[in-house]
Write a structure and sequence with these properties.
- The complex is a heterodimer.
- By secondary structure, chain A is mostly helical.
- Chain A contains three helices and no strands.
- In chain A, helix 1 runs antiparallel to helix 2 and helix 2 (about 30-55) runs antiparallel to helix 3 (about 55-85).
- The longest helix of chain A is centred in the C-terminal third of the chain and has 31 residues, at about 55-85.
- Chain A is elongated and about 50 Å long.
- Chain B is an all-alpha fold.
- Chain B has one domain (about 10-480).
- Helix content of chain B is about 75%, strand content about 0%.
- Chain B has 21 helices and two strands.
- In chain B, helix 9 (about 205-220) runs antiparallel to helix 12 and helix 15 (about 325-350) packs across helix 21 (about 470-480).
- Chain B is globular and about 70 Å long.
- In chain B, about 65% of the residues are buried.
- Classes of the chains: A mainly alpha, B mainly alpha.
- Chains A and B meet through helix 1, helix 2 and helix 3 of A and helix 6, helix 7 and helix 10 of B.
Chain lengths: ~100, ~475
């Protein structure tokens, strides 16, 4: 059986990749996908902990997280579309109309 | 698994009523002709009033509900009433604003109600997953609200930044929950406190999990260094929405911080305390000094909102250091006082900024004291209260926080806080001086205030002076509310 630490390490790596992508990527869609990656890293951690503790609560939480991520995707993509309509670009660096 | 019982349902009655009215507003929306959408605003307001009265008519017996995931205690009642008040003021201030700017869609009212539901659940939950759900319900609604001026690129930008950084923060919060669950096997705060009270339960990983959760919430309350989104979002969002989201979701996130950090972090010793101490000092200083440089009123108030989050953190640090209720009650008092003055200020600015919010520079307010004496006087009171001048709510809010922090022995932090509030007087009074002392024609709108907005402003002014002149009643209320923390 694969030990718990492997799952947690994978989850941590995915989370860090997501967070790094969020900071360094310059396209809004990619940044949004990085957030989804972070949420899925959390799901993996919940599943692994749930399995190794023999406690089903963690699997339940994963469903909550999936539902919330879906709602977030709906709102996020709608916002992206409305942003694209008003600016014709999805580059994060150009979101600077309110600098001092 | 227990079945749902009537007392359980009674304990989430305000949330149910709010959600019901929000759905009602959305159902009615297609049947209401375009020119008469304000009816739906009044329905939403009625929903808030009914939710508030539900408490008075059928006071729910305090206790846990839904297998310990909802805590109906004085603490959650205090915050639910605060959120209902904020929602009512924001609704009153929005009705004419939406008509003026041709964005009168009933979804706005429904989203305000849904967001309030989420905030109520955040304050009332004793279960980390439930807190997460409340956080997301309130956040998803406010993301849309921030971008409600759909054809304004700045509003779009504001919504996008709020959405991206908000979701990023949520992921951190959730990762923290996953680790807490993995380390202890529970996400219920009561069980968690019992579990962590045993010796040897605190490890580096537990602290890391708490820090992750703090980072997630720190984004929501915009403490340094997680404040980068705040100025852009508050400036770009429609001003009544800024009024709402600079007070409501912020107070809700503080409610969660108080519940988690006072309930759990007690035994964790100095580590968590120093995190709060440092972020309080940084937040106040960065917020106030950045506000000094601003030329846009909304942006200045955004930095001031950051600074005020710092003062609240001082109260939280005091509560953690002393373990008495004085710090927690100061936090509750501060959040309520801050809500009234900030909502009032932003609603008034929404009106003065004119159609399309074209007039939000500080220079646009030159000479307003003569051109529109009433509005200028109200704005002056809000600015004086934000800077903490005696006889306003802001003074006692700061006074109680500083007193709690002195009593807790945090002399250094209190000195930083007092120096900061001296600095803040400069930029608040700068706006007042611009209105009264500078010669010129004001660019700001001089149309008379519509009645709903007028009543919202009057209510905020009344609350500011009531809390500033007779703070004892409210302090007693916040002290009572801060006690039964699970």
């Amino acid at each position: 059986m694969v030990p718990l630490s492997h799952y947690i390490a994978l989850s941590a790596i995915l989370f860090v990749i997501g967070a790094a992508g969020f900071i360094f990527r310059r396209n809004i869609i990619t940044v949004f996908m990085c957030i989804e990656l972070m949420l899925n890293a959390v799901n993996l951690a919940f599943m692994a902990f749930s399995r190794f503790r023999g406690n089903l609560d963690g699997q339940l939480f994963v469903f909550f997280v999936i539902v919330v991520a879906a709602a977030e995707a709906a709102v996020g993509l709608a916002l992206i579309i409305s942003l694209y309509r008003s600016r014709d670009t999805l580059a994060i660096d150009e979101l600077d109309s309110m600098k001092l | 698994m227990t079945t749902v019982s009537i007392p359980d349902v009674m304990r989430i009655l305000p949330e149910l009523i709010l959600a019901g009215f929000a759905i009602l507003v959305m159902l009615f929306e297609p049947f209401v002709p375009a020119g008469r959408k304000r009816v739906l605003g009044w329905i939403a307001l009625l929903g808030v009033l009914v939710a508030g009265m539900a408490f008075t008519w059928a006071p729910p017996n305090a206790g846990m509900a839904f297998s310990g995931s909802i805590a109906a205690d004085g603490f959650s009642y205090f915050f639910i009433f605060l959120f209902l008040t904020i929602a009512a003021l924001a609704l009153l201030g929005s009705i004419n604003y939406l008509e003026r700017d041709n964005i009168h869609h009933a979804e706005y009212y429904a989203l305000i109600l849904f967001s309030t539901v989420g905030m109520c659940f955040m304050a009332a939950s004793a279960e980390l997953i439930m807190i997460f759900l409340g956080l997301e319900i309130s956040s998803l609604s406010t993301y849309v609200l921030a971008g409600f001026r759909r054809h304004d690129p700045r509003s779009n930008e504001s919504a996008m930044k709020y959405f991206l950084l908000g979701s990023f923060a949520t992921a951190f919060f959730l990762y923290g929950i996953a680790f807490v669950y993995g380390l202890t096997g529970t996400t219920n705060l009561v069980d968690l406190a019992a579990d962590l009270a045993q010796p040897g339960k605190w490890s580096t990983l537990t602290r890391a999990a708490l820090i992750l959760m703090f980072v997630g919430l720190a984004f929501k309350v915009s403490t340094v260094p997680f404040q980068i989104w705040t100025p852009d979002v508050y400036q770009g969002a429609p001003a009544p929405v800024t009024a709402f989201l600079s007070t409501g979701p912020k107070a809700a996130a503080f409610a969660v911080l108080v519940r988690i950090f006072l309930g759990l972090a007690g035994p964790s010793g100095p580590a968590a305390f120093w995190v709060i101490w440092i972020s309080a000092a940084l937040t106040m200083t960065v917020g106030n000094f950045a506000a000094l440089l601003q030329k846009n009123v909304k942006r200045m108030l955004a930095y001031s909102a950051i600074a005020h989050a710092g003062y609240v953190l001082v109260g939280l640090a005091a509560a953690m250091a002393s373990g008495s209720t004085e710090g927690a009650s100061a936090v509750l008092f501060y959040l309520a006082a801050y809500a009234f003055m900030n909502v009032g200020a932003f609603l008034l600015i929404a009106h003065l900024a004119g159609p399309g919010e074209g007039r939000t520079e500080i220079s646009d307010f030159t000479g307003l004291g003569r051109a529109a004496p009433g509005a200028a006087a109200c704005l002056t009171v809000f600015m004086l209260s934000l800077s903490g001048i005696p006889s306003t709510a802001g003074f006692f809010a700061k006074f109680y926080v500083f007193r709690a922090s002195v009593h807790a022995g945090l002399i250094g932090l209190t000195i930083i806080a007092v120096l900061n509030s001296v600095v803040s007087v400069y930029y608040y009074l700068n706006l007042v001086v611009t209105m009264y002392m500078r010669e010129g024609e004001p660019q700001a709108a001089r149309t008379p205030m519509p009645l709903p907005l007028y009543s919202a402003i009057a209510a905020s002014l009344f609350a500011i002076f009531y809390l500033g002149l007779y703070p004892n009643h409210f302090l007693l209320l916040s002290t009572l509310s801060s006690k039964p923390l699970p």
